[in-house]
Automatic annotation (TrEMBL):
GO terms for molecular function: 5-amino-6-(5-phosphoribosylamino)uracil reductase activity; diaminohydroxyphosphoribosylaminopyrimidine deaminase activity; metal ion binding. InterPro entries: CMP_dCMP_dom, Cytidine_deaminase-like, DHFR-like_dom_sf, Eubact_RibD, RibDG_C, Riboflavin_Biosynth_HTPR. This is Riboflavin biosynthesis protein RibD. It catalyses: 2,5-diamino-6-hydroxy-4-(5-phosphoribosylamino)-pyrimidine + H2O + H(+) = 5-amino-6-(5-phospho-D-ribosylamino)uracil + NH4(+); 5-amino-6-(5-phospho-D-ribitylamino)uracil + NADP(+) = 5-amino-6-(5-phospho-D-ribosylamino)uracil + NADPH + H(+). Pathway: Cofactor biosynthesis; riboflavin biosynthesis; 5-amino-6-(D-ribitylamino)uracil from GTP: step 3/4; Cofactor biosynthesis; riboflavin biosynthesis; 5-amino-6-(D-ribitylamino)uracil from GTP: step 2/4. Zn(2+) binds at residues 51, 76, 86.
Amino acid sequence: MTADGRWLAAAAALAGRARPLSRPNPGVAAIIVKDGKVIARGWTQPGGRPHAEAVALAAAGEASRGATLYVTLEPCAHQSARGPACADLVAASGLARVVVGCLDPDPRTSGAGMARIAAAGIACTHKASPACAESLSGYLARQSSNRPEVTLKLALSLDGCIAMASGESQWITGDEARAHCHAMRARHDAILVGGGTMREDRPRLDVRVPGLESRSPERWVLTRNAAPEGWRALPSARDLSPMDGVQYLFVEGGAGAAAAFLAAGHVDRLMIYRAPILIGGGRPGLADIGLATLAAAHGQWQFTVRTQLGSDTLEVYRRCEPSR
């Protein structure tokens, strides 16, 4: 990886601090580097303002002159009552160079942010960064498909069950896996279960990790009926338009809701927590997802990472990009 690639990857990691509190804005991060050293950094603040570039430039002050700004997303070019356009702030900063990890698909900025910076005499380069794209995956999904990025979480036994035949499911996985799952909840704008799971389990769907309790996401239920107090209803997994503004959705079950999102083609990431137990005759983790042939099941998912969590294992898969 080049030096630019490493700094962009560092900015992408820093952007995790903005998620999901930056909503409705994307969680962006910026790092200002001079003579090989970080002199300032910033990320999008809660509620969406100030933006990452504004935070970093304010921290750097005059030291930004002659430095390089690494930013995960193209600086915005549109005016807002909530704050100045970042492209204008960068253009007036005295920076020598700007490196952008992702172009902004928002038509109000797309290309215009970089052009405005270049017009001020600052070298402005786009270097496509997979790490930056991953850090902005929810924002990019909403811009390209007008829906949130959807992560489906399944907690399974070795034989693919989510519960005993009686419905008993507490607990399939151990303490470490459950704590990890709660931390993942804290990174999402919204969390969803099916109507059956809500009625049978009465889940809280909150975050129970010390220090992150305030990060509990919005609670949604997949149902055509009215949602209970404190919940919101999604009538169909095929139409996510009611989830306006949600960038990251965490689907936790049960088997029917999981199958509905898979059948709709709306699952972008699988997180499978697997416990070293056999149930036999239990409730399967998935209902029918509408596959007509076994061949149709292949080539859909790409393995990305495996993590050991106590005695349990987490495997993460990304949906494969369609062949061009």
